[in-house]
Design a protein that fits this description.
The complex is a heterodimer of chains A (250) and B (253). Chain A is α/β, with parallel strands linked by helices. Chain A has seven helices and ten strands. Chain B has 253 residues and is mainly alpha-helical. Classes of the chains: A alpha/beta (250), B mainly alpha (253).
Chain lengths: 250, 253
């Protein structure tokens, strides 16, 4: 598999002088499902925001599919779709359909292509029946799926989710997880951050554990699990089936 | 826009009649009729405003006005009427709380109030028959030929305003509830109560706006976006010509 994301000695210092990331290096291959875990303030969100150039490195470099994210942010954003932690603040449109169309409209696509992408994204996230609904009337799970539809309509090769399961009920978590897993099956690269490994670890190819702006440990979930408590993350309770048995999907 | 101003925009599934009219035509007629009403006296104003309002009523466009919005606007109209009636000098009819009310004051107050009412009803007809995205696209279309005016940015700002205002209200409401849960409602001084609510509310709204800007950036926001398709059909042209003719003709009466 080819490298989709290459992070090379990435450091980020905030305006107040605190370090968000320190010399982080990571390679994510195409089609991989990567879970990034760590306690609050460990640098997960900062790391994700460098993938589509929402933040610029203090030092080091991020390349997405060979594109230097800091030098060509628009290209990087076309390749990397991002789900923010707070779904509400990601919604721009006055209706569900308009919100999903926001990204493709930014790309200046012709109207038939926008309509095709919107229809596909709505179908994929199970929001077709809510297409004309106003976003503020949606439930938490539906809002999260709407933000996912907005990202899918951009047809990115990498989908990045910053705590995509936060504040969701059981059905909401399953709905989002199903879409993420199906995206990976189609060959897209998926990266999610979480505190709660129970929900997603069964589907991960790799677990990356962060602490204090550094990667403390990374590897296949079975191997990296030994370090989770040291990174301030609760170790999931596995049964005889091991990590695969943790799945929330049937 | 519904939750912002008490006017319900049309449900996309129930769009018919005025809702299907090109938004640019509606904007032009709103502007033309509002201006045409300025020089008219009371009888001409009634005659001028009657047909469009009846059409709006028959088309169901005025049913989207919510009661609370009607009541608050009625109060404003009454205030305007009373201020005019009490302040304009002329032949005194009777006295209220020491102020003499003149015949000229009543007629002038009624005229101003009616003019405002007409603009409100025409504006309500626009909002209740046109989704905000279409109004935004029409405004953008009119601004595009003007040099130095960032039409796309203005359009996006309009859209964001529609999106952010209800969020701002929600933020304020959640703060108010959180403060009430900690006994904030028991504070006697209303100025202090408002200050305690306003500062954190402002901070949260600014943070929310920042997150929204970041999310827009992540979705490749830029000024050159795909324009919304708008087509002026024969029916739109007929309505435009008839509407402008009516606004022009009434000036001669």
């Amino acid at each position: 598999m080819a490298a989709m994301i290459e992070i090379d000695r990435l450091s980020h210092r905030f305006a107040d002088g605190t370090w968000g990331l320190r010399e982080v290096s990571l390679t994510v291959e195409e089609g991989e499902f990567v879970v990034v875990a760590g306690e609050n303030g460990s640098g997960k969100t900062t790391l994700l925001r460098h993938l589509n150039a929402l933040l610029r490195p203090t030092a080091g470099r991020v390349r997405v599919c060979g594109v230097d994210a800091a030098r060509e942010p628009l290209k990087a954003r076309l390749l990397v779709g991002m789900l923010f932690q707070d779904a509400e603040s990601q919604i721009v449109g006055e209706t569900v359909r308009e919100d999903v169309a926001f990204g493709p409209e930014n790309l200046g696509l012709p109207r038939p292509e926008i309509d095709r992408r919107v229809a596909e994204a709505l179908a994929r996230t199970g929001l077709v029946h809510l297409a004309d609904r106003r976003p503020h009337l949606l439930s938490g799970g539906e809002k999260r799926r709407l933000t996912l539809a907005g990202v899918l309509a951009m047809e990115p090769r990498v989908v990045v989710g910053d705590e995509p399961f936060a504040s969701l009920d059981y059905a909401g978590v399953r709905g989002v997880l199903e879409v993420l897993v199906s995206l990976q099956r189609q060959g897209r690269t998926v990266i999610v951050t979480t505190h709660d490994l129970d929900k997603v670890l069964a589907h991960a190819d790799r677990l990356v554990l962060m602490k204090g702006g550094r990667i403390l440990c990374e590897g296949r979930p079975g191997q990296a699990l030994a370090c989770v408590e040291a990174c301030g993350v609760k170790r999931p309770a596995t049964d005889a089936r091991g990590i695969r048995g943790l799945t929330w999907l049937s | 826009m519904a939750f912002v101003n008490g006017l319900r925009p049309p449900a996309p599934s129930a769009r018919k009649g005025l809702s299907l009219l090109d938004p640019r035509v509606k904007l032009v007629l709103l502007a033309a009729w509002s201006i045409a009403g300025i020089p008219l006296g009371l009888p001409a104003l009634i005659g001028f405003g009657f047909p469009p309002v009846v059409i709006g009523w028959r088309e169901g466009a005025l049913r989207g006005i919510e009661k609370r919005s009607s009541l608050s606007f009625a109060a404003l109209l009454f205030f305007v009427f009373a201020a005019r009636a009490l302040s304009l000098a002329g032949e005194p009819l009777f006295t209220v709380f020491g102020f003499s009310v003149s015949k000229e004051g009543i007629l002038s107050g009624a005229e101003v109030a009616l003019r405002l009412l007409l603009v409100f009803l025409l504006g309500a007809m626009l909002v209740t028959t046109t989704p905000a995205a279409e109004v935004k696209a029409a405004v953008e279309w009119f601004l595009r030929p003007l040099p130095g005016v960032p039409a796309a940015r203005v359009g996006t700002l309009l859209g964001l305003m529609v999106r952010l205002v209800p969020l701002a209200f929600a933020e304020i409401e959640s703060l108010r509830e959180a403060q009430a849960a900690r006994g904030g409602g028991r504070r006697g001084n209303p100025v202090r109560r408002i200050r305690c609510l306003a500062l954190p509310a402002l901070a949260r709204i600014v943070l929310r706006a920042e997150s929204l800007a970041l999310a827009m950036e992540a979705r490749c926001y830029r000024d050159e976006r795909s324009p919304r398709p708008m087509r002026l059909r024969p029916r739109d042209r007929r309505v435009l010509v008839a509407g402008l003719a009516w606004a022009g003709a009434v000036q001669f009466f």
